[in-house]
Design a protein that fits this description.
Strand 4 and strand 5 form a beta hairpin. About 15% of the residues are buried. This protein has a single domain, classed as Beta Barrel (OB fold (Dihydrolipoamide Acetyltransferase, E2P)), CATH 2.40.50.100. The chain has a four-stranded antiparallel β-sheet with strand order 5-4-2-8, with no helix packed on it. Strands 1-9-7 form a three-stranded antiparallel β-sheet, with no helix packed on it. Strands 3-6 form a two-stranded antiparallel ribbon. About 0% of the residues lie in helices and about 45% in strands. The chain is globular, with a radius of gyration of 11 Å. The protein has no helices and nine strands. It is mainly β.
Length: about 80
């Protein structure tokens, strides 16, 4: 069963953001807790970890604007 990778809220000021870059390639094997992608915001890049072990499937591309809570990939 696929586990959704959700775009998290990293700032109180905004409900949108973008994936700065994926740290794992589409189809790559990941372990729970591995850094999957970076969110770029005003102050710094924030790493988002894999919620489970398995193979990552990107649903959104780096640089795309997404809403907090939106699915950006699956494990």
């Amino acid at each position: 069963m696929a586990i959704a990778v959700i775009f998290p809220k990293v700032s109180l000021e905004t409900d949108t953001g973008s994936i700065g870059r994926w740290l794992k390639d589409d189809g790559a094997e990941v372990a729970q807790g591995d850094a999957l992608f970076e969110i770029d915001n005003d102050k710094a890049a924030v790493e988002v970890e894999a919620p489970a072990s398995g193979f990552v499937a990107h649903a959104r591309a780096a640089g795309e604007e997404v809403q907090v809570g939106e699915i950006v990939g699956h494990i």
